[in-house]
Write the structure tokens for this entry.
Amino acid sequence: MSGRLRIAVQKSGRLAERSLAIVEAAGFRVIKGANELFYRVENAPIDLLRVRDDDIPTFVEDGVADFGIVGRNVLEEHGQGASVEIMPLGFGRCELRIAAPSAFDYRGPNSLRGLRIATSYPKTLARFLERVGVDAEIVAMRGAVEVAPRLKLAHVICDLVSTGATLEANALIAVETVMKSEAVLIRRPGVFDAELAQTAESIAQRFRGVSASQGAKYVMMNAPKASLAQISRILPGAGAPTVTPLVGSDDAVAVHAVCQESVFWETLEKLRGAGASAILVLPIEKMM
């Protein structure tokens, strides 16, 4: 394994498939062999270390892995603060929230004072309670946190919420956000050897490019020169568009723009209303 970088990824779970997908989208060809622990990258000196998600922060901090893809919620709970968070990756979004039975009269964090709170994130919850100045009993659980109120193990819970379906199925409602989470890329502390520094930089740059391209659209159109200011205001999340002359026209130009926000039909209708024509919206595969 010497002379190769290791990226720790979740072996199974909600981030596993997307973690592998972003590695491949970054141009690294992954050989999915029979080895349960390692996947080898064919076209770069990189191995994927496939482990439990709560081991990833420790492996990266201890230098067992050079990079890691992990939920910020897991990093907050299991990390010791030694790893370096490089960037959010734009997937696996969820929130760690306090949830209570639907009949619970919640009037802010002080409503939690003296209660038992079941959670799989005791350290994160403890920091939150300290921050808001509330004393409560934390009941640490490994899973099935949502059933704790029904089993009289706790009054309320603190758990990850994405769609809210699990809370609804257990007659619970989210009342307070402890933290927002998504997948992030982290790296070990320290400096990489000269032999691997270029590969390490390539990983960061490519992941940044893939992350930036998610949801981004390339918009092209023809437009009257007189409408350029109005069209620039309509384009969602775009910087200054690229404007080039149209052959045979003194009054119209071609407008190209990268939009970081969603381009809806309503956006196209507004562009058309501003005089734009031949409007094309294309997905972006890579950005750098």
The chain is about 25% helix and 30% strand. The chain has three domains: 5-90+183-213, 94-181, 217-283.
